[in-house]
Fold each of these.
Amino acid sequence: MPNIGGPELLLILAVVLIVFGAGKLPDVLGQLGKGVRSFRDESTNEKATQTAGTATAATAAPGTTVYCRNCGRPNGADSKFCTNCGQAL
Ligand SMILES: [Zn+2]
């Protein structure tokens, strides 16, 4: 790959301007940006989905059951105290 410096970049920019026209340049850059962004979003979403799936599996139906920290007995999500030992939940 040739060493691309400032002058070469300006030349490329000039060619791009000639090919696409100065008016279309924002569109072209926008499309390019969208492409990169959607690609990044996809890889990020994939990671997020994987993380969410793991978290959901580990937590096991959050909001339905609260397990007592003292005796481990399951209590209703809105329980304030354990029904077995009275430990504050
Ligand atoms: Zn308890």
Amino acid sequence: MEQQLIDWLVARLGGDPRLDVPNGDDAAVLRPPAGRRTVFCTDMLCEGVHFPRAPDYDPRAVGHKAIAVNLSDVAAMAGCPEAAVVSVSLPREGGQRIGEALLEGMLAIAERFEMPLVGGDTTSWDGPLAVNVAMLGSVAAGRVWRRDGCRVGDVVLVTGAVGGSLAGRHLAVEPRVDEARLIAEAFTVHGAIDISDGLALDLSRMMQASGCGAELDLAAVPIHADAVAASKRDPAGGTPLMRALGDGEDFELLISLAADDAERLLEAIAAGRLAGWPGTPLTAIGRVVAGHGLVAVAEDGRRSSLPPTGYQHAFT
Ligand SMILES: [Mg+2]
């Protein structure tokens, strides 16, 4: 029953100083952080698209992902997560168990990033599981990261490693919230985007928004071990590099900084001078150039046009 799940959740939720009215009322009332802008985003996950079909999904992992992908969007704006609301369509069969496990997965990561769940809606139906999260964040006025601010001469950096996430990593998303906050506190970032649909596609989106092009040093792209393993298993699906460029669901950050700032940032991390840095690799993979589109630069210096491969939801 819906009420049973809501009662369980309200009892499970802790309080939060940002909440002006305790959980369980018609709507959440928040105390907005003074002097900051509101970041607001939403992301929906559907069974069979963003996670496996029943009975092959772990509802806890789905809950984790639903919060993590929104945190990734907030991080891509250099935002601090403040609150989230959750809407779920539960299958009638096993809905209570699925709902509780889903919310436990959500609460575990929400608590880790000190972000309260402040409300939501539950329905049940004869369809598959669908989960939507809407998230609020905040950012100091004038300090937000945008995708349209890249400048010619910038260096493009990527967090972590990319490719092959469908082997399982796409569920265990690690949002780069702390990395974004630490970089934003100490450096001026011209452009940023998170990689949801593929490095090449999301980089091309950032360049298009900025009215620039980018050169990508293929040998510098940090290829995840999952991409190497996936290519071994299924060579027809592309080389590890192709998977790194186009697989998507990596939820790493692409950021663009003036060349000397990028150098100082990489040095600060290498020397352990960025206090609190979680140890995530940060790699320079190319630079912003005049023009449009992406150019791949091979290790021997050969250049070729790079198609913006990646995942796009299809509909007519
Ligand atoms: Mg995004």
